[in-house]
UniProtKB/TrEMBL annotation:
<dbReference type="GO" id="GO:0008168">
    <property type="term" value="F:methyltransferase activity"/>
</dbReference>
<feature type="domain" description="S-adenosylmethionine-dependent methyltransferase">
    <location>
        <begin position="171"/>
        <end position="391"/>
    </location>
</feature>
<keyword id="KW-0489">Methyltransferase</keyword>
<dbReference type="InterPro" id="IPR029063">
    <property type="entry name" value="SAM-dependent_MTases_sf"/>
</dbReference>
<dbReference type="InterPro" id="IPR036974">
    <property type="entry name" value="PUA_sf"/>
</dbReference>
<protein>
    <submittedName>
        <fullName>Class I SAM-dependent rRNA methyltransferase</fullName>
    </submittedName>
</protein>
<dbReference type="Pfam" id="PF10672">
    <property type="entry name" value="Methyltrans_SAM"/>
</dbReference>
<keyword id="KW-0949">S-adenosyl-L-methionine</keyword>
<dbReference type="Pfam" id="PF17785">
    <property type="entry name" value="PUA_3"/>
</dbReference>
<keyword id="KW-0808">Transferase</keyword>
<keyword id="KW-0963">Cytoplasm</keyword>
<dbReference type="InterPro" id="IPR015947">
    <property type="entry name" value="PUA-like_sf"/>
</dbReference>
<feature type="domain" description="RlmI-like PUA">
    <location>
        <begin position="6"/>
        <end position="72"/>
    </location>
</feature>
<keyword id="KW-0698">rRNA processing</keyword>
<dbReference type="InterPro" id="IPR019614">
    <property type="entry name" value="SAM-dep_methyl-trfase"/>
</dbReference>
<dbReference type="GO" id="GO:0005737">
    <property type="term" value="C:cytoplasm"/>
</dbReference>
<comment type="similarity">
    <text>Belongs to the methyltransferase superfamily. RlmI family.</text>
</comment>
Length: 398
């Protein structure tokens, strides 16, 4: 299908020229190019009001972000050669960074492929197509992945709610190889079994791997509380570093069962206990019981998924950190994260400080972490810088 022109309103190309790749519906000159005449996923050529050619992309007239740029090279329209080039570029970075093939291979906009996520588990690829444009190019993308990576299996993890915003159905589909219920990930000497067709994200949180690795330098003490523990990546790491008691809290019974299997596999089951249910309620109960911990880890899901969620989300971050700090012993360590890109780093730090003041605790921020380098940040696209992880030392005020 030949790309159709998408004409922007006057002076609406500035953000694109600065490097961003999103186009909002109110930036389009709908008199020149009526959006209602375009199909979701249809390829377009983006052109300024003055006739300047800006790039190739795709459109979804039913979405607030109605178009995304893919290529700024007029000689390189999206197609088989384009997909191969982009995937080779992404692979080159990861092979420079990692000895073993376990990482996020494609991180959407940051890798020049908005709407595409690919996680690599050795010879298995877990793929998410989150936009109508990428769904439209599904066959070409899968062919390119097979040519570049030669995987034995590919699962489409299109069960992410963001597809609803694009008018796309959700589901999980194995498009290459036999379905697998288990793959194993090795991280810092620990082995974790995950189900690539189920669970959060594509089964594993590669983005926190670098932050978990740095936990070793601080010392975790004897008692550790891992909140929103999922499969135990943080909690088992703490046990491996010497913690004698690690309590893991998660809302998912299935995740906690998998966590204990991982603990047994790594010879750590004797140090691990679990609590299933609401994290806020369990933290309050532990406070009432007088429990205290040397290290507390808070790695919640995004409390602010959309801008309209901000007031409620800010309150949730403030509350969960206040409850966490109340459970820390003097000189305790708090590892606290936010994966909400609507929450800026400075605001997050201020929320943690407010939580500490509420508890009469003084804190020091020892380190500010972000997602690992397999989730690169595009400097012109702030939405790609979503993960904030603070290492905080807390002690009683005086």
């Amino acid at each position: 299908m030949q790309p159709q022109p998408l004409i922007l309103r006057k002076d609406q190309e500035r953000r694109l020229l600065a490097g961003h790749c999103w186009i909002y519906s109110n930036e389009v000159d709908t008199d020149e190019t009526p959006l209602k005449g375009l199909e979701p996923g249809q390829p377009v050529e983006v052109i300024s009001q003055r006739g300047r050619w800006l790039g190739y992309g795709y459109v979804n007239p039913h979405s607030l972000i109605c178009a995304r740029l893919l290529s700024r090279d007029r000689s390189q329209p999206p197609g088989p050669t384009f997909w191969l080039k982009r995937l080779h570029q992404a692979l080159s970075l990861r092979e420079r960074l990692y000895e073993r093939p376990f990482y996020r291979l494609v991180f959407g906009e940051a890798d020049g492929l908005p709407g595409l996520i690919v996680d690599r588990y050795d010879d298995l690829l877990a793929v998410q197509l989150t936009t109508a444009g990428m769904e439209h190019c599904r066959a070409e993308i899968l062919t390119a992945l097979e040519q570049v990576l030669r995987p034995q299996a590919i699962v489409l993890r299109n069960d992410t709610p963001v597809r609803e915003l694009e008018g796309l159905e959700q589901g999980v589909e194995w498009v290459l190889g036999e379905p697998r219920t288990e793959v194993r990930v090795s991280e810092e000497g620990l082995v974790f079994a995950i189900d690539p067709g189920r669970g959060q994200k594509t089964g594993w949180f590669f983005d926190q791997a670098e932050n978990r690795k740095r936990l070793a330098r601080y010392g975790v003490g004897q008692r550790v509380l891992d909140v929103f523990s999922y499969l135990g990546a943080w909690g088992l790491r703490a046990a491996a570093l010497g913690a004698q008691e690690v309590l893991c809290i998660d809302s998912s019974t299935e995740a906690l069962q998998a966590l204990m299997i991982n603990a047994e596999r790594n010879g750590l089951a004797g140090r691990i206990q679990t609590l299933q249910g609401d994290a806020f309620e369990h933290l309050r109960a532990l406070r009432e019981q007088g429990e205290r911990f040397d290290t507390l880890i808070l790695d919640p899901p995004a409390f602010i998924k959309r801008r309209k969620d901000e007031p409620e989300g800010l309150a949730a971050y403030r509350q969960i950190n206040r409850l966490g700090l109340e459970l820390l012993r003097p000189d305790g360590l708090l590892i606290t994260s936010s994966c909400s890109f609507h929450l800026g780093r400075e605001t997050f730090q201020r929320l943690v400080q407010q939580a500490a003041q509420r508890n009469g605790r003084r804190i020091q921020i020892l380190e500010v972490g972000q997602q690992g380098p397999d989730h690169p940040i595009h400097p012109a696209i702030p939405e790609t810088a979503y993960l904030k992880t603070l290492v905080v030392r807390a002690w009683s005020g005086d």
